[in-house]
Amino acid sequence: MSPTARHVVVTGAGGFAGAFIARALAGHGYDVTAIARRPAPTGAPSAPRLTWRQADLLEAEALPKRFDALVHCAAMIPERAPDPQSLHRVNLEMARKAFAGSSDAGARTVVFLSSMS
Q1: 35 contacts 10 by C-beta, under 8 angstroms
Q2: If pLDDT is split at 50, 70 and 90, which confidence band does 48 have?
C-alpha cells in the first residue's frame, strides 16, 4: 500500500480474504472501510480504525465519497448465481463500478484480487 494512503476501502470484506485484509490494514494503522454485501455478523472480528459497511457494489452510493486506496476482493460466487453468464456479468459490473468509484474518490492505488468466479 502506498505510504501516503490513509483511508483504504476493502470490498468483499464478508469473505475470507477481504476480512483478513481489512483487519490487517487496520492493525497497521490505516483507516479501513470494510464493505460487505451482508451485515457484519454478531461477534465479527473488529479492530480500531475499522468500519464495517453493508452495501451492494452495484449501487452508486456503495463506496465512500473520498478514500485513498481500494482493495477489491468482492465477487459473486457460483452458488449465488449458478448461471455462468449472469455470474460473469455481475462480477464484471461490480469491478467496473468499484474502479470507477475509486477514481471518483481520488484513490491513487487499486489492488484487485481475482476469483475463480
Answers
A1: yes
A2: confident
